[in-house]
Amino acid sequence: MQEGTGVTKTSMRMGGLAAAFLTALVVAAPAHAQSRAETLRYVTGAAVNTLDPTMPGTTREAFAISLSTYDRLVSFGRKKLGDNWVFDLDAIRGELAERYEVSPDGLTLTFFLRKDAKFQDGTPVTADDVKWSLDRAVSAKSLAGPQLLTGSLTSPDQFTVVDPHTFKVTLPKPDRLALPNLATVYAIIINSKVAKAHATPEDPWAQAWLKDHAVGSGAYSVDVFKPGEQVVLKRNADWTGAAPDKPAGFKRVIAQTIPDPATRANLVEKGDADIVIDLQANDALALKERGKLKVIATPQFNALTLISFNTKMPPFDKAEVRQALAYALPYDAMFKAALFGRGKPLFGATWGEGDPAAAFPVAQPVTLDLPRAKALLAKAGLPDGFSTTFSFNVGQAATAEPMAALIRESLEKIGVKVEIQKLPDAQMSTQVSEKKLPFFTEGIVAWLPSPDYFYRNFYTGNQRWNYSSIDDPEINELAAKARFERDPAKYDDEVRALNRRNFALMPQIPIWQPNQDAVMAQSVEGYTYQFHRQVDYRDLSRK
Amino acid sequence: MASAGIVARRTGRRFLSSLPALLGVLVFTFLLMRVLPGDPAVFFASGPNAGKAEIEEIRRQMGLDKPVPEQLVRYLGDVARGQLGRSMTTGQPVLTDLRQRLPASLELTFTALAIALLLAIPLGIAAALRPGSVVDHAVRFLCALGVCVPTFVSGLLLIYVFYYLLGIAPDPTGRVDVFAASPPDITGFLLIDFLLVGDWEGWRAAAGQLVLPALTMALFVLAPLARITRAAMLSVLGSDFIRTARSLGLPRRRVIVTYALRNAILPVLTIAGIVFSTMLGANVLVEKVFSWPGVASYALDALLASDYAPVQGFVLLMASLFVVVNLTVDVLYGLADPRVSIE
Q: What is the similarity comment for this entry (chain B) (predicted)?
């Protein structure tokens, strides 16, 4: 007995040692090197994987970084949507160009570069750099080419250097999206002398080197780049694009990858992080209710969530079947369970005189109406229903999982048996691309949210983004025509016709536009919802 | 000197005999990745306008346009030259990624294992000395708790208490305080690097970042270690030589630590080796919760994107580490009990 007690003491002493070791570690104090107030710490679940935004596979976070490290010729202005600032597709202002002119026939765009513009290595920005950069965008094998194509920018022949500070773009047709395309993340202006020095015969556009090096004239230069972990940006004091003529608000920006959403919520609530935009809907709601932080909720007006049918696959090749399902979805319940009501619903509308509006997306006149759904199914020759699968990807599980469960429950009532299929992201995109899924949910985004662009990209052609594989002569014709329509009234008529046709065919059901909940410290100001759905660090400053 | 020679010879032989297994793992992983239904080229052609041409181009860049046998031969050739391909997820060569991330994982795992052993062995001994007592039941309860609670739950709980409520732990975001200057980069093990440059402030900060994730993992592996210690100690304590030692009136400490523990340590070593290998791969949840830039979360992200090269590189790395760990455990056997020599 006595022996036992003694030995327990020995082991307890060892345990005590372990405990002392742990305490010593926990109490370790953090050391802050630079002024916290001048630093913006942005946390996100995604990662930055390249400094060259044109690389295939570039993440959205990498787009955000490139927006700050590079300049483009022009950029989007901003407007008020409700109480919030959002980007404005129709107000394009100069960025590297101090001004631009569009010829009366809409075929020539002339850009006058800022004379004082300098790259981060101190050399002046010239029209030759602009030419090389845009040549690269349309020639190099990257994702820039297909994007600029949507603005009729396809060949280096369209880009001319007039003099060192004047640059001209010519268009084959007066394309409404040519100018906005030059404001997107792909149209970056690169320091061509430096980039050319790192080009090789196999890699004439220095794509390998630019992945890890940013040589632009932007508001911030890259201080630390750890792919998948964090990027630290340093303010470029020479950059004066923050209107009017001021450098960017923060001296330093840290964009850090924090995979766990609960940890991100903790960080911003404790004040250790300044801004976050990808919290879970319920966390954002809770933080808003606690009232300590600023929560700016903007419906993502250039993005929407869809429930898509494969119109090439029976029974969804029948419009009545698609319509039947559209009247059998529990919209309100899904909106509450998946989004906690944080978004703009696109269902339950009533179309009156003048509707649908000449916009995209427009709220659809659909509601949960089971008798009507049953009648439509019977009309399609399927009074007893059928079986199908409903797919979504793991990345969307937080919202799609409750949605799927509710859909299954509701469709059972009209005799449609649904099996739920949750796919890893790469598998989902492969199967969508190969048109193998009958019934699924996906989201779409347009950087340049003009209605004809939405219809051309997401409702025409045998390509991946035409989720429903719809091939309707009327939609094809109207969408192609609207692109080059210069008369605003006619354009609106065409868009209305597209919206009506789309509703009649019901290839996919727009269900909502989720909010982007930007949660930030009270002291952070200037947040603007941007086309790439990321934070533009240049907008922000501290009170 | 002679024994060192024997150890070296044994090590070399074991290493050679593990090469076929490594090759098998390499080929198997390679084929497995290609059988999975996800197509990385489609996934990475994610721009809103990427069409067939872009997907084909990415396929060409990744070498996926060639037939699978040719891809395999090329891949094996690359591995033989020490290249593991390029990750599409991070845009970096896989070798660079693994080299940067492995020390983070190893540092975390070593620390967790050290904490686990420091806690488990005394607990196991205490339980074995008085089986059926309150201490024994308390240890059993603690072990059950450690195993039952998933690491992401215990991790989040620790963060909630020590960071969110009490505010004594630094923010749970990676290996160093994000506002501090970049740490020295010598070995990649921050605790060692800060020691080498003599930066105590930095060392304390790095250790502070390490303690919560390490504790989370330690709690999870406490059970097997403590239970095996208890079982091994029980059988040794009942043996004749312990009774003899006791009857000779040797000091208690000497009986327990020198005679009993040393004889009971072999199974604990075996389990520790297995636990270590498992922890390296299985700590993905801990890495995610604490934003720890380790290899496991790296491999998981790549797997979700069907990014072949990093997954293959990771599996190869894990297989190699497993070989090394087994070897180390064998060598430690010899040190713990000179009668054992495994050929």
A: Belongs to the binding-protein-dependent transport system permease family.
What is the mean pLDDT of the segment spanning A320-341?
92
pLDDT tens readout for residues A81-120: 888 999 998 899 899 999 999 999 889 999 999 988 899 9
Task: Name the CATH superfamily for A303-516.
Answer: Dipeptide-binding Protein; Domain 3 (3.10.105.10)
- pLDDT bucket at B47, cuts 50 / 70 / 90: low
Question: In which order are the strands placed within the sheet that holds A74-81?
Answer: A74-81, A84-94, A528-529
Class of residue B49 by CB neighbours under 10 A (exposed 0-12, middle 13-18, buried 19+): buried
Which chain B positions have a beta carbon within 8 Å of A4's beta carbon?
129-130
Domain A71-217: state its class.
alpha beta
Domain A35-48+219-293+523-543 = CATH 3.40.50.2300:
no
Q: What percent of chain B has pLDDT over 70?
A: 96
d(Cα A464, Cα A448) in Å, to the nearest integer? 19
Tell me the Ramachandran region of residue B91: left when phi exceeds 0, alpha when psi lies from -120 to 50, beta otherwise: left
A155 contact partners, CB below 8 Å, separation of at least 6: A138
Report the candidate in A8, A11, A22 with the shortest Cα–Cα distance to residue B115. A22
Q: Is the pLDDT of residue A28 over 50?
A: no
Any A CB within 8 A of B55 CB: yes
ipTM of predicted complex = 0.81
Nearest CA in chain A to B120: A15
- The pTM assigned to this predicted structure is 0.83
